[in-house]
Amino acid sequence: MKVWTVIILGGAITFLLRFSMLWLFGKIEIPNLVKRALRFIPAAALSALVFPAFFYQDGVFSMTLDNERFWAGMVAAVVAWYGKNILLTLAVGMGALYLFRWIWS
Amino acid sequence: MLSAKASFWLGVKDVSPLIFGILPFALISGIAAIEIKLSIPEAIGMASIVFAGASQMAALQLIKEGSPILIIVLTIAIVNLRFLMYSASLAVHFQKLPLAWKVLIGYTMTDQAYVLPISKFEQTDQIIKHWYSIGVGATMWTTWQLGSIIGIFLTGAIPEEWSLGFAIPLTFLALLTPAVRDKPTVLAALSAGVVAVAGHGLPNKLGLMLAAFIGIGIGMWAEMRNK
Fold first, then answer.
1. In terms of CA atoms, which chain B residue is nearest residue A11?
2. N or C: which end of chain B has fewer CB within 10 A?
3. How close is the nearest chain A Cα to the Cα of B221, in Å?
4. Is B175 a domain residue?
């Protein structure tokens, strides 16, 4: 019962977050400051999802050699930046993870 | 100008490489749901009703820890607050659409179904925007549901050592680089990343929101200084 309550309330709030501005746009005036903020959303939001995953290993901050996630992440970042190819980024990132783990094991 | 059908299929084509990142993510969320002792209908319900991977994983963690409903729902809201920003950013393109279309585009909105269309709209005006968006959104939705269901029934069959979870940040990384185009966006991304790492230990994923807001603030500040 508790799980269904979470699913339905969580789902309803998530839908409203996604739908609200599509619906309200034009009906309310969006301040200039907000408009200028919009273009930074993907850079800031995605980066906040990516960084912790590379710098933390089993919940502990680590930039040492044996944090293969950090090094694989750096390799993948270089490939993502220059390659501009999503599939290549994924393949090289996973490959680097396995490689570094193998080297340092 | 592309037709509705061609716009839709262009969206499907553009998002298709991302399937390789989303599928492991969906698999993991399905596996995690069953491991945390959700029933099969509950696990499927979560994938289709919430349909937002990062928040689903956070919610599962809190359900496992026995957190109160209010905290879990609030956490889902906080992790998904970025959709509010995406919604505001996309709204200008879809202002004239009928309500049913807005509901559909809203429901299928994801990081991918935001970043790909918004980048495409800047490059070309030769597509029908809502058909392109729904091409991306429908592909994402189908992949997520199929992957979740496979995960639900695969529980225990995929070895931990495969580290499929690492495909999740890699997917976000692949979406991040096209969004970083000039000095202000680079600064926004770097500052958000640093704050997210520093605030990782904060409760209820607060570090994530804090990081996004600070990143946006730094980006706007850098843009102002450039002028």
1. B50
2. C
3. 10
4. no
